[in-house]
Amino acid sequence: MEEYAPLASLSLTHVHYNPADRLSYVCAWLALVPQGLCIVYATLIWSNREIEILLMFTGQMACEGVNWGLKRLIKEERPREMHGKGYGMPSSHAQFVTFFSLTLTMFLLFRHAPHPTETHTPFSFFQRLLLSIAALISAAAVAVSRIYLNYHTPKQVLVGCTAGAIFAILWFGFTTYLRRAGWVDWGLDTYIAREFRMRDLVVEEDLVDSGWARWEDRRLRRRALANGKKRS
C-alpha cells in the first residue's frame, strides 16, 4: 500500500471552541474578524481606490509585522489549556483589532470632514462618535474572546491591545505628516497612482456618496428620455 507524507493543517480559519457553550460559539466567529477585515480592506481598495484606505491597510500590515517580531522576541507560550501552534505574547488578534478600531476612530473624529451634497447628508460628528464607540466595543469583544477560548492569557491580550494602540497612534501621526508635508499629493501624481486611478476623496466625502450624484443625474435623464419617447 502506497504511503503518503502526513498532511499539515492551514490554521488561518481553524478555531477551537466548546460546542456545548453558545458563548464559545460566538467567540469562535469573533476570531474570524481579522480575516473578514482583510477582505473588507481589499474590496474597498479595489472598488474605491482611496489612498486613505490604502494607507490604513499598509499600517495594518506593518502592525502585523511588529506583532510577528514581538512574538519571536518574547517567546511566551500560550495557555496550557490551548494546544494551538505559535507563541502567544502578544495576542495578534487583540493587536489587529485595536489598531483597526483606534485608527478608524482617529480618522472619523480628527481627519474626516465630510461636506453635504445635493443627494446626501453625511454623518454628523456625534454620529461619527457613536460609530467610533461601536468599533472600539467590537474590538474589545474580539480581544476578550481570545481569553474565553483559552488562546491567550489576559496579559497577552492586554499587551496586544497596548501594542496595537501605540502603533495606531504612531501611524496616524506619520500619515498626518505625509499629508501636511505634501507627500500624499506627490504620490497621487505619480504614474503608478494615476494608472491605478488612486484618489483622495474620502477625507471630505462619505464613501456611500461616491458616484451617487452622477447616478441620480443619469437616472433622471434616462427617465426623462423615456417619458419623451412615450409622448411622441
From TrEMBL:
Domain Phosphatidic acid phosphatase type 2/haloperoxidase: start-end pairs: 53-172
Transmembrane portions of the chain: 23-46, 94-113, 125-145, 157-178
Top-level EC class as recorded in UniProt: hydrolase
Entry keywords, A to Z: Endoplasmic reticulum, Hydrolase, Membrane, Transmembrane, Transmembrane helix
Listed EC numbers: 3.6.1.43
UniProt xrefs under Pfam families: PAP2
GO molecular function: dolichyldiphosphatase activity
Keyword Signal carried by entry: no
SUPFAM superfamilies tied to this protein: Acid phosphatase/Vanadium-dependent haloperoxidase
Protein task: Required for efficient N-glycosylation. Necessary for maintaining optimal levels of dolichol-linked oligosaccharides. Hydrolyzes dolichyl pyrophosphate at a very high rate and dolichyl monophosphate at a much lower rate. Does not act on phosphatidate.
Catalytic activity line of the entry: a di-trans,poly-cis-dolichyl diphosphate + H2O = a di-trans,poly-cis-dolichyl phosphate + phosphate + H(+)
Topology of the protein relative to the lipid bilayer: Multi-pass membrane protein
InterPro entries, alphabetized: Dolichyldiphosphatase_PAP2 (IPR039667), PAP2/HPO (IPR000326), PAP2/HPO_sf (IPR036938)
Keyword rRNA-binding attached: no
Gene Ontology CC entries for this record: endoplasmic reticulum membrane
Family the UniProt entry places it in: Belongs to the dolichyldiphosphatase family.
Subcellular location: Endoplasmic reticulum membrane
Source lineage: Eukaryota, Fungi, Dikarya, Ascomycota, Pezizomycotina
UniProt name for this protein: Dolichyldiphosphatase
Location, primary (coarse class): endoplasmic reticulum
GO biological process terms, semicolon-separated: lipid biosynthetic process; protein N-linked glycosylation
Pathway: Protein modification; protein glycosylation
